[in-house]
C-alpha cells in the first residue's frame, strides 16, 4: 500500500532527500541509507518539496566545497601563530626607543668544569629593549651562561659586554641589572613588604616605600603585602622575585626559568609583567624549556644545544620565513 506524505512529513521522516521525481503526482523514490520507500506526492505540496530538494542540494555542495578548501589549506603551526600575534602586539605597543648596539654581547664565552664543557664558545647578541628567549633542554648550559653574565661564575675563556661595558666596568653595570637565578629566596617568616624593604636597603635605595608600592602593583601583589613569604604560592614567590629584581629600576633583567612548574594563571601573570617591563625599555634575557610560552612574548631567540649557541633568530624572521620554531628546535637539538 502506498503512503502519502506532505513535504514537512517527508523532511521529518527522511531528513536530507537525495533524489525524487519531478512531476506532480508521480510516485517517487526517496533513497536514504541504501533503503528505498515508494511515496506518492500530494500535488499541492510538490513545490514545497522541490524547494526543499534544491536547498538540500545547495547545502550539500557548500559543505563539500568547504571541506575541500579546508583539506587543501596549509596547516599553520600553533607556535607560528603565537609568534605572529607577539609581533603584532609588539608593533602596537608604545615602547621606549631602543638604542643601537646590544644590551648583552658575548664573544666565544666558555665555561669548563674539569674536562666537561658546560658553555662552549657562545657568541650571543641581546638587543636593547628585546625580550630574548634562551631556549634549551635541561642541562643545555642556560643557567651556567647566566651565572657568568652576573659574575656568579668565572668564565674559562671568552669575553662579555653588558650595556656595552666590559672588564672592570662590569661590576658597576651589574648594579643596574635585576636577576632571578634558579629559585628566588626570601625570609619565610617575614612579610612580602619586609622582604622587599630589606632588598631596598641592600641596594641602597632611597625613599623605598613608593618604589616598593610600584613594583608590588606591577606584579599584582599589592593585596598581599602583609602575607608571610613562606605562605606564598609558587607563582606568587616568582612574582615577588621579579618585584625584588625590579626594585633598583634595572636596565637589564636576567631571569632563569621564571615560569618553570607554575600553573597556567601564574604563567600568564608573569608573561604580562615581562611585556610591561619591556615596554618601558628594559632589556630582558629569559631562559626556558617551555617554548610555547616564549613564543607569546619573545622578540628574539637563541637556541642552546649541549652548551653551544646553534642559532639566533628574531620573531620577525620566524614570521617572514614561516618557521615552525618547535620543529626547528627539535631538528637542531637532535643533530
Number of strands: 13
Low-confidence stretches: 19-24
Q: How many domain units?
A: 2
Report the radius of gyration as a whole number of Å: 31 Å
Topology pattern, helix = H, strand = E: EHEEHHEEEEHEHEHHHEHEHEEHH
What average pLDDT do the residues reach? Answer: 83
Strand order of the largest sheet: 9-10-11-7-12-13
Task: Estimate the helix proportion, in percent.
Answer: 40-55%
CATH homologous superfamily annotation of the largest domain: P-loop containing nucleotide triphosphate hydrolases
Summarize the biggest pleated sheet. Answer: 6 strands, mixed
Highest-level CATH class of the largest domain: Alpha Beta
Enter the CATH topology name of the largest domain. Rossmann fold
Beta-strand level of the residues, as a percent range?
Answer: 15-25%
User: Can you name the CATH architecture of the largest domain?
Assistant: 3-Layer(aba) Sandwich
Q: Counting H and I runs of at least 4 residues, what is the number of helices?
A: 12
Structural category: alpha/beta
- Global geometry: globular
Distance between the ends: 75 Å
